[in-house]
Amino acid sequence: MPFRNTLARDLTISGTALHAGSAVTMTLSPAPAEQGILFRRSDHGGAEIPARYDLVGETRLGTVIEKDGVSVGVIEHLMAALAGAGIDDLTVTLDGPEPPILDGDALSYLSLLESGGAVEQTEPRMVLKVVKPVTVESGDAKASLLPDDRLSFTYELSFPVIGDQYYAFAFSRAGFKAEIAPARTFGFLNELETLNKMDLAKGASLANTLALDDSGVVNRDRQRFADEFVRHKILDAIGDMALAGAPLLGRFEGRKSGHATNNALLRALFADSRNYELREP
Fold it and tell me: Catalytic: 259?
């Protein structure tokens, strides 16, 4: 029987917040069994926000969790890395509004987690098995969770300049590290000025973001995969699905979907207890 895992020791790293553009320090700490992933804002009196789908309050350009007027933004890359590392219980302490963006991927977080090592807890790890199909749609965007005996992700992407991309990923820790975690976030240069005026993307740079203009990828030397964009959308989906509170067992299918659709999908899943079963793997 698999058991829950936490970190073996504290880990601290500093960097720049993607949207706020400010310096932020993050400490990852071991946590007791069944706590789950808990974010703590040291700059807000130690306010705590559990990483849960029902606490998501904003999804425009990242997944933001919020409780009692305090929020933590852009958590999806870290949540994806925690899923890839098999970490169930963890306290994330921040002195700013977001985790540091680091390399714009999940691999930088995953490497940090691996450097600290994991400790097996005494409580068994339960999984959330999808037993009935659940689908949400919004305009052209569509996302589904379907019954399956293993966790997998497929995604269809269609963007100007990028074109159409498709990727299928059967989840495994080794596969996540090699195929998905290195995929960087991306954005369009012509949107940057508008975002900055909205106090967003102030920490985005050509080092941590694949930048696109009318001719294609501006910083092509930073691109790791020809289909990096669709891989990153799967990375985002893995991080967003990690807000379910337990590892999912089922098949995620996305088409032109994003953080809002992903969160709506989890809310639809939990809206009816007949959609899922919490059980041993």
Answer: yes
